Amino acid sequence: MVTVPYRALALVIAIMVLLLNYKVKGVQKVLALNIFWVFWMFFIARVYYDVNLRSDVLLSDVSQLWLYIFCICLLPMYAIQKSFYFINTDLALSWIIGGVSLILVTALFNIDSQILNPGEVADRVGASIAVNTITFGHIGAMGVILSLFMLQRKKGGYKKKIFYLFIIALSVFTLLKAGSRSPIVALLIVLLFWVFARGKYVIQSIIITLLLILFIVVFSDKILHLMGKISPIIELRMRATVDGGDTSGRELLFYEAFDSFAESPLLGSQFALIRTNGFVNSHNIIMDALMGLGVLGGCALLYVLLKSIKVSYLNTHFKNPTSWISLILIQQIVICVTSGALYYEQLINVLLVFTFTYIASFQHQRKMVSPR
């Protein structure tokens, strides 16, 4: 009742953007973006072959998978690329902060009974039926990132600063209540990346990053205990990870995916781990690429991700107004190498396209103004 109309609306917007910009000359592509599009073409061929041409793979219904691939991922990716010159990133930032804030505030009505009695909570929390625990946690992490970004811009009066501080507090509360570990890991990595990228000197950035890591390690027990005051379930799960290396069974999926890759390392063996009642991803997009498209596919995706991290670093280092997009991209990369699948995650796909299109546009403009 919620997600289907929302997805439909997103699809309609993407189609409208394409129709309004179909005559617009596209931005010249960079190598990483070309490789990314080629990767997607081969992945689609892989899925089609596994689903329709192989006799040893029987999947009853993959309509949702195709809908995600073409309608949720590819169409918005192409819409971003075609409409790039008309994107108002400042307006987008305002809308996204507003949307994140709305989700965080309205979610309080669903978890208000747990605020007064946090010790009685023994399960993970989602914002609603439409927003699961992992997504809820990552929305909280995004709230922290975007609010810190707005505060460091030093724009607006004290009322706005109070608002962003409130959103940070609410985001941290949400992050812990969600009970998922990957949002916390993603937030820590983004913050460390931000500190490292914003430093004037590499040595200085390394020292600050190491000091932050040392602080987390030394005071980890106290930090976990403090987290448990808000959400006992997240303290329990984080201690299980720190003390026992618990990954909620993800390592089993990883090993199974690696064995599948080892069967055909050159061309890949199958796009996902096939089950009698469907399929499941390995919760790691690089492993998925290796399993589905072999060494070439895995190396292609790894190159795209590493290139995007490099671009994000430069974008953040030079304090570009769009560096908030780079920070969210880093968060999405962490999501997808810990618990995601590329064909089910729209945000990382459109952010990668935007990042590489931005670089292509920048390079093109620099060539236009450079002396001949």
From TrEMBL:
Pfam families: Wzy_C (PF04932). It comes from the Bacteria. The chain crosses the membrane at residues 6-24, 31-49, 61-80, 92-109, 129-151, 163-195, 201-219, 285-304, 324-344. Its main location: membrane. It is a multi-pass membrane protein. Residues 167-300 form the O-antigen ligase-related domain. Keywords: Ligase, Membrane, Transmembrane, Transmembrane helix. GO terms for molecular function: ligase activity. This is O-antigen ligase family protein. It comes from Kaistella montana.
